[in-house]
Amino acid sequence: MSDLIFTPAYQLAQMIGDRVVSSLEVVDAHLGQIAKHNSQLNAICTLDEDRARQRAKLADEALARGENWGILHGVPITIKDIFETAGLRTTAGYIPLKDYIPKQDATAVARLRTAGSVILGKTNMAELAGDYQSTNSLFPRVNNPWNLDYTPGGSSGGSAAAVAAGLSPLDLGNDIAGSVRQPAHFCGVYALKPTDRRISGAGQIPEVPGMPLCIRQMMTVGCFARSLEDLRLCFALIAGADLRRPDVPPVPLDTPSGKPLQNLKIAWIDEWAEVPVAGEIRAAMSAIAQTLSQVGVQIERWHPQGFDLAKILNLYGRMAAYLNIYAQPVDKYNVRRSLQQIFRTATQGDKSLRKLGDFSRLLPELLNPSLKGYFETLTERDRFITQMDEALEPWDVWLTPVAATSAFTHRPAWSAVDIDGKSYPHAVANGAYTMPFNLSGHPAVVIPIGQSKNGLPIGMQIVGKRWREMELLAIAQEINQVVGDFCRPAGY
């Protein structure tokens, strides 16, 4: 059974399809792992045990009749609690939604279900996806499987922890500021944040049900797995146009170029000058660059001209404020007051770094939003997207850190993070390496590349060209074969 719970989803699908193992056996193995470990991890907040077993039995009966539901026939998966699931509680960690049972699946969930998957349950998260840790007022905090005293990250901490600990082979998450990539880095798993608007967000919270669609940019649907093959499989299933979201363009999946590793032109950087990373992450990035160079890759340290991090983060903060201000009902959840608290708390830390994370300067605009200000912000974002498209054009991919630290110990929301003797504002430590690519809309993959001295995972972000996810995943696979692989946390 331990082999089944750490077998990639694509292999489980083949084994079930070939009737080497039954769907019920695979589901039972994962339910056993959940029963054994979830009480400590709190990664899964709503378990759908009975319906999962029932669907697994139906999957086995269908195969016996010669029927196949799809490429994930009978394969168990989990879904971040931010996506609506028909007949299954969906809360987003938000008290007013504690008893909310949707009537319809989110589009991405529906596509995974149509492909034959078996939904085990929902994974725990930060309240309304609003933190880089995974805590809320409904469920116990999520703990990192590598060390329970440490956070798995957020907001998709339950997703990353579940996949890392073998509770699920595949999980659906979302990312507006690093919510897929930072937890993958903290928990040592693979993750994809696709191009902005590549995947429909229909049925995703926020917005709270009943509110107008406000978050129309930067929020992407992504996925977690223990292999790049599974990321490719999941992405191909959920990408594409959707009648429920007419702003998702009908862009076909790209075809990878098939370039061998030695023919790639790769850019890399070990840290932004404004946000130094922990020494162990810097050393891991340098080691990757050296390894790739030794096997004949054309790799060069590179930083885009005009990449002004302070301006980028300020623009990101303005975009995020405009998108979120009306996404929740103010009478039930005072989002303005909440954002004020976040912006002010997030400035805690070393004075030399405060200017990067001092989103409190945005409060006047936040408290008095204007249509003119929103359009001006959108226009600035368009310029930044064009700038990044042009800068990345000569390169196949760009390698960067994911965050300034590896996983840190649990702490109050938005409090400072210490890095090599410096105290960093929370948003800077966790988002400075991910927010720029939500703002620009470029896809990014995270792969594990090693561990810190205290045994915590280190991941690397691989940034590609917009609308070229299949090429990005193919390149990530080439790099992964040389520099990384998933490691199982001890005790699982």
UniProtKB/TrEMBL annotation:
What's one GO MF term for it?
Answer: catalytic activity
Q: Can you give the residue ranges of the Amidase domain?
A: 25-473
Looking up InterPro entries in the UniProt record yields: Amidase, Amidase_dom, AS_sf
Pfam families the UniProt entry points to: Amidase
Family of the protein in this entry: Belongs to the amidase family.
Question: PANTHER family of this UniProt entry?
Answer: GLUTAMYL-TRNA(GLN) AMIDOTRANSFERASE SUBUNIT A, MITOCHONDRIAL, TRANSAMIDASE
Name of the protein described by the UniProt record: Amidase
Q: Which organism is it from?
A: Fischerella thermalis CCMEE 5330
